[in-house]
Every structure is written in C-alpha cells, then in structure tokens.
Write a sequence for this structure.
C-alpha cells in the first residue's frame, strides 16, 4: 500500500508541477487561477504527495450561485490515470474536498489523451499513441463518475485538438517546408503582399476585440468581450500574446507597381517581336504575359480601394498562450474583406516560429476542432482544413466526467436544469 497525502500547493509550486507534467497546460496554472479568481470563483491548488514528491495536482474551482454550488477542474486534474491507485486516492480526496465546500457535483475534464489520430482523423498504430485509454475511462466510471461520452462537435474545453510536432525543425526554412504546398504558398503570398505580424500592447487590445467580435458575429460563436481579453492579459502577463497581422498598403502598392512595370516591358517587347516576326511560341508568350499584366493592373485597382481604409490595415488577430511544454492558439478572428491577403496563415507561421521554434518548444497546439472528418458540409470543415494545411495530427481527449458529491442536491439540480430546458 502506497503512502499518499493531499497537500495545498503554493502558486509557484503548482506552476512548477504543471510545467513538468506530461499533460500540463495553460488551464492548470496560477495564471488561470488569477483569471478565475477575478471572475469571483474560489480557486485552490491541490496536490498529492508521495515520498516527498508531488505526483498529481489540480487547480480546483468552487463555483457558487444562489441556486447551486459545484466544483470544476478544467483540463485536469494532472494525474496519471493509468495509475489506478493514485487516481483512486486523488479522486476520493477531491470528492471529500468538494463535499466540504458544499458542492452538489464535481466535474473534471482530464487533459490526458484518449488516443491520437493522423491529420485526417484516421487510426494510428498503438506504438504511435493510437491505443485508446479505455482503462483510464473505466477507472473513473468505477469511482462513480458519469461520462459525457465520446462526443463530437465544439465544446468549451475541446475534446478534439489539432497539434503539430515541431521536433527537428530548427529554423524558418524547415518550418515552412513542413507545411503542405498550398499553405506554403499562402504564407509566402501574405509576406509578399505587405502583411506584417506584430504583438499588440495592452492598451491596443481593442484592435483584437473588434476583429474577434466581427468574426463571432459572422460565424455565430460566443464573443467574450474586450474586458475579458484585458483580464486575460493581466492574468497571464507575458505568457499571453495578442498578435495582429496588418497590411501595409503603401508597401503592397509599391511592390505591385514594380511588378506591373516589369510586365509592361515584357509585353511591349513581346508585342514588338511578334509584330516583326509572328510565331506561335511568341504569340503564346504574349498572351500569357498580357494576362499577367491585366491581373496586376486589376490588383492595383483593388489596392487603391483598400487604401481608402487607411495606410495600415488590421487583417487578422490571434491570441497565443505560452506554457512550458507548448504554445496554444486560443482565439482568433479575421476581416473578411482582406481575405485575399492570407493574413491568417502568416500569423500562424509567425507564432510557430517565434513562440515555439526559437524557444525550443516542440508542441504547437492549434486547439479545438469538431472531430468530424468525413463530412465536407460540417460546420467546422473550414477550420479543420485550414489547420490540416500545417501538417499536424489529432489528439482526442477522454471528455468530461461528472461525479455526484451530494446525491440529493445533485438530483435536485439536474431536475431543475431539465425543467429550464423545456
């Protein structure tokens, strides 16, 4: 029989544990605790100690309202769920702790993967992470947890994630080469069109919020508001990066004018050559370069329209969060009008390069997808295909588990919820 003990951790000790745990993540950090506490949620850092070493931990949240009290652990607890004895002890202690807080139930969303898939959702061999963690699921069920199931679709804590392994990638050239051809072209295209990525200062977060809000309205997802993003930045500090991709329209126009002038000379030369001695080859070349010139002139006319919006145009914005073992792409938005500039692709490339490759971090987390891979009409199809262009893999998590702590209060809460849904 092993000797475990439940301990309360300092924020610093908890962060150190999260940084070194194989499932450590930005939701299980003191920064997340500061954010939750600012929302009026009671937070505690609990751990399991064995032989003087912390072997499991959780940012434990107690939510209180006039109608109910319940406990939550987002993206955790951080625990080896294959270790049955450790899991049984920790869950029993957390249940007692939740009960002492007056909670009707405790919800956990383990970060440990259920299994891994290839980029298209296909099965992987067991030695590549494809073996389902059914033992972990059964352990939790046997402890009284109710499993929400192996769901698909978007959830608050995504059950399906898209990730990229950056092992062996050491510079921008090898990073770019690791994408598929279309995404490589998009990144290069954006860079050639005067698009530049920079980090927003805290007093510029309205730029991010405006783009995020417009995207939320267009795609029908929840908009959290500028105040939330400001609180997020204050809680996470230098670990939160609000990035914007901007079109420098003057640079773009100057580049296009230079290309147009080169094309004009080519067309004039080919036309003179054809007039003097018409051949099929010269005629074909003249036709091709004339079409290129017409396209360049069309893009210049469009650029003149964009220039009416200003000199520097925010085209896309994203929030990236650093953790010791990964960088997470958490929120994003884009301006539909500037879609032809491929700013969203460039901002991803920039984040991977500077927040992962240059830091020696090999895990880039694109975060949520809906888990639907075989339906071209799926609501999340565009998001999936965009992320697949960077050539990663899929992580399927175990999902959400709920443990009744006070059975009568839990039953009452469940009944009230059913009535409210009618």
């Amino acid at each position: 029989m092993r000797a475990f003990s439940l301990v309360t951790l300092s924020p610093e000790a908890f962060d150190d544990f999260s940084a070194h745990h194989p499932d450590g993540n930005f939701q299980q950090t003191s920064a997340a605790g500061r954010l939750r506490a600012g929302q009026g949620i009671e937070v505690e850092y609990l751990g399991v100690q064995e032989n003087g070493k912390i072997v499991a931990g959780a940012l434990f949240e107690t939510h209180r309202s006039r109608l109910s009290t319940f406990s939550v652990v987002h993206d955790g607890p951080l625990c080896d769920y294959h270790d049955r004895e450790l899991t049984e002890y920790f869950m029993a202690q957390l249940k007692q702790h939740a009960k002492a807080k007056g909670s009707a139930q405790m919800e956990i969303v383990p970060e440990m993967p259920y299994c891994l898939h290839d980029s298209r959702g296909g099965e992987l061999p067991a030695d590549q992470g494809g073996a389902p963690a059914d033992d972990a699921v059964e352990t939790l069920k046997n402890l009284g947890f109710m499993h929400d199931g192996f769901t698909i679709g978007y959830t608050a804590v995504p059950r399906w994630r898209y990730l990229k392994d950056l092992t062996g990638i050491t510079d921008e050239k090898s990073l770019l080469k690791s994408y598929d051809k279309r995404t490589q072209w998009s990144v290069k295209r954006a860079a050639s069109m005067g698009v530049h990525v920079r980090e927003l200062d805290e007093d510029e977060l309205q730029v991010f919020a405006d783009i995020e809000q417009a995207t939320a309205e267009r795609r029908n997802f929840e908009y959290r508001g500028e105040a939330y993003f400001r609180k997020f930045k204050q809680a996470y500090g230098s670990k939160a990066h609000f990035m914007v991709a901007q079109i420098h329209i003057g640079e773009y126009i100057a580049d296009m004018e230079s290309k147009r002038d080169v094309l004009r000379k080519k067309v004039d030369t080919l036309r003179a050559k054809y007039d003097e001695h018409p051949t099929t080859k010269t005629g074909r070349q003249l036709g091709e370069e004339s079409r290129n010139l017409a396209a360049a002139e069309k893009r210049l006319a469009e650029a003149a329209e964009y220039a009416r919006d200003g000199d520097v145009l925010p085209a896309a914005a994203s929030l990236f969060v650093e953790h010791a073992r990964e960088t997470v792409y958490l929120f994003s938005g884009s301006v539909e009008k500037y879609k032809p500039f491929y700013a969203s692709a460039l901002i991803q490339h920039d984040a991977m390069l500077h927040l992962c490759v240059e830091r020696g971090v090999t895990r880039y987390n694109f975060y949520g997808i809906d888990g639907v891979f075989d339906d071209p009409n799926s609501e999340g199809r565009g998001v999936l295909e965009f992320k697949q262009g960077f050539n990663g893999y899929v992580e399927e998590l175990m999902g959400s588990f709920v443990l009744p702590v006070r059975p009568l209060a839990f039953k009452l809460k469940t009944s009230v919820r059913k009535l409210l849904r009618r």
In short: The chain is about 45% helix and 25% strand. Residues 160 and 396 are 5 Å apart (CA to CA). The radius of gyration is 26 Å. The chain has a mean pLDDT of 94.
